[in-house]
Design goal:
By secondary structure, the chain is α/β, with parallel strands linked by helices. Helix content is 51%, strand content 12%. It has a 5-stranded parallel sheet, sandwiched between helices. A 4-stranded antiparallel sheet has the order 1-2-4-3. A 3-stranded antiparallel sheet has the order 8-9-10. It has 20 helices and 15 strands. The protein binds one RNA strand of 77 nucleotides through helix 2, helix 6, strand 9, strand 10 and helix 12.
RNA sequence: GCGCCCGUAGCUCAAGUGGAUAGAGCAUCGGCCUUCUAAGCCGAAGGUUGCAGGUUCGAACCCUGCCGGGCGCGCCA
């Protein structure tokens, strides 16, 4: 519809130029049509006349009037007015307004979906939490946001691939293996002091026992053998930990060490996947950093940067000239000990994604990684990749509140709240809705009490209740031995003449545009915001107007309207990963 | 110190990405009410969009400088 209005305007402009009402030498602007913010301004508004006023050397309002005179007639438009500083406002004909309701019921779950993405392959990476411990509430927001965004892009017609990048290589994984091994020794009765910087969580103890159950005492060594000759921990806890890891590898041998490491990774990744599944999130692929390294792609990526002339050696390391491409400083690709950096792996990963055929890459990262964006951008740029192909969405952490008190959150002290705990407390639906209710870059306060409350104050509850309430109306209808007999296309929607109904009709008609706009700007919160508006409009309607009335034609018109509302609520909530319950 | 993000009603946040009179929900105040679903419904009040300049027909949005908050500034991942 928006496009239809825009094309009418474009035709008007062309006609004006043809008639000599516009200078032939000026460039015609791209016609912008938007939804009128105020219903008193009709349904759609165009600012074309104001944009054109200056180059055309005419007054905006006069220009608008001239355009109005040249507009082709359209069945969908019942009125055109010039208002304010020079807006051209369009009012939809009733039939066009009703079409949205009929389309919602005809298309069902597909209503709101479009093909603007044209099947364009798009890769979206999110969560990607290190496999060294359970997901916490910081990951939760990235998970909810990333998944909603992926669904949104799908709804807009993109071929979406969801991926989780697993950092299963490098030092932290060795520390994980050592941590688990030490807990395993404890479980087997060998007491080795647990290092300060090891992973101290209970989950390590649990999985260590599982390893003992599975493999028996195969990896047991005496406490003295484990610690003999290691540097003092007090002097340098990190160096001690590395020495301990080296010792584990030496004592166990490569195969057994690898077994312990893989067991630890598998167990923790299993926990993570389980939690994500309970959170309603699944990935098309878990991409292993280790496989990336084994495939030689990291070396290849470094090589390509070198061939492109963007590397140099200094202080024993290989550097990438990031500063030439907008970063603050140059970055190390290969350390003086010969190992490649995390950054090098990430360059390789991004290249690999592009080679898989994804034209657009979306990365959902925690906002604490923002300093990392310029160097990745720089690397892609150095390899000739257009900057627009990578979109990094930064997600701020949420601060939890309970009873008006801020919950302490410190990863170092190990007192982080896990996603599991959050879900146990407020439920999947509330958690997911709250997480995506705000713009991702916005710092956000997460009120646990509100999320839990079963009241209209709770936005999730409010939206879900609207859906359940409509279901309930139809149950009531059946109990009275009635059914909505009119097919959507036959319902007498012209009988809907209250302001409440006008608002609902308007909102339903806007849904496809909301999806398209939210996908284009990659902002799922627009959908959440819209759903609150829709639910509010429905509840107000419900309170003001009875549905189950004697006048059959009017009754069925109203039932058709709320059935369409129900469909849109279900579709929108579905995009956000929130259930639309039949009853509450 | 440098860089990025943020600053909107008492509180939590929107504002279709430069449009018309900056909107919701809590909380506050004033009425009503006990209904297809019940935890209510209707209305009012609440603002120099951190401050000061600038850009233009038009700025919460773009530019500059301050103020305040968050994060980042490893040959860690």
């Amino acid at each position: 519809m928006k496009r239809h209005v825009a094309s009418l305007l474009a035709q008007a402009l062309a006609a004006m130029r043809e008639a000599g009402e516009l200078p032939a030498d000026i460039e015609l602007p791209e016609v912008q049509v938007e939804r009128a913010r105020d219903r008193a301004h009709g349904d759609y508004a165009a600012n074309t006349a104001m944009v054109l006023a200056k180059p055309a050397g005419q007054k905006p309002r006069e220009l608008a009037e001239a355009m109005r005179a040249r507009l082709p007639a359209s069945e969908a438009i019942s009125g055109v007015e010039v208002a304010g500083p020079g807006f051209i406002n369009f009012t939809l004909a009733a039939a066009a307004r009703h079409e949205a309701v009929r389309a919602a019921l005809r298309e069902g779950p597909a209503f709101g979906r479009s093909d603007v993405g044209a099947g364009h392959p798009i890769h979206i990476e999110y969560v990607s939490a290190n496999p060294t411990g359970p997901l916490h509430v910081g990951h939760g927001r990235g998970a909810a946001f990333g998944d909603a965004l992926a669904s949104l892009l799908e709804a807009a017609g993109y071929a979406v691939h969801r991926e989780y990048y697993v950092n299963d290589a490098g030092r932290q994984v060795d520390i994980l293996a050592v941590s688990l091994w030490l807990r395993y020794l404890e479980a087997a009765g060998v007491a080795v002091p647990f290092p300060e910087k090891g992973y101290r969580g209970d989950y390590i103890v649990t999985h260590a026992r599982e390893l003992l159950d599975a493999d028996g005492h195969a990896y047991v060594h005496g406490a003295d053998t484990v610690t003999a000759g290691l540097p003092a921990e007090e002097a340098d806890p990190e160096a001690y930990l590395d020495a301990l890891a080296a010792r584990a590898r030496a004592l166990l041998g490569e195969a057994a060490y690898r077994r312990v490491l893989d067991f630890a990774l598998g167990a923790i990744l299993g926990d993570i996947r389980e939690e994500l599944a309970a959170f309603g999130i699944g990935f098309d692929r878990y991409f292993s950093e280790r496989e990336l390294a084994d495939s030689g792609r990291i070396e290849a990526a470094v090589q390509r940067l070198t061939e492109a002339g963007y590397t140099y050696e200094a202080e024993g390391a290989l550097w990438f000239r990031a500063a030439e491409l907008g970063d603050d400083k140059d970055r190390v690709l290969r350390r003086d000990n010969g190992l490649t950096t995390y950054f090098a792996a990430d360059v390789a990963y991004h290249l690999e994604k592009l080679e898989r055929g994804f034209h657009t890459l979306v990365n959902v990262w925690g906002a604490d990684h923002h300093g990392y964006v310029p160097r990745v951008r720089a690397a892609l740029q150095a390899l000739g990749v257009e900057a627009e192909r990578l979109d990094v969405r930064l997600v701020q952490f949420a601060v939890l509140y309970r009873g008006g008190e801020k919950l302490p959150m410190s990863t170092r002290a190990g007192e982080f709240v896990t996603l599991r705990e959050l879900r146990d407390e407020v439920g999947k639906d509330a958690a997911r809705f709250f997480y995506v209710m705000r713009r991702s870059e916005q710092h956000m306060d997460f009120d646990l009490d509100l999320a839990k409350s079963e009241s209209a104050d709770n936005p999730v509850y409010y939206c879900q209740y609207a859906h359940a309430r409509i279901c309930s109306v139809f149950r009531q209808l059946a109990e009275r031995g009635l059914a909505c007999q009119a097919a959507p296309d036959e319902a007498a929607l012209e009988r809907l003449d209250t302001e409440h109904e006008a608002v609902l009709l308007d909102l339903i008609g806007r849904y496809p545009e909301v999806i398209e706009a939210a996908a284009a700007s990659r902002e799922p919160h627009q959908v959440a915001q819209y759903l609150r508006e829709l639910a509010a409009a429905f509840h107000t309607y419900y309170n003001a107007v009875p549905f189950i009335i004697d006048d059959q034609a009017l009754r069925e018109a109203r039932l058709t309207l709320i059935r369409a509302t129900q469909q849109v609520l279900a579709n929108g909530l579905g995009l956000l990963g929130v259930d639309a319950p039949q009853s509450m």
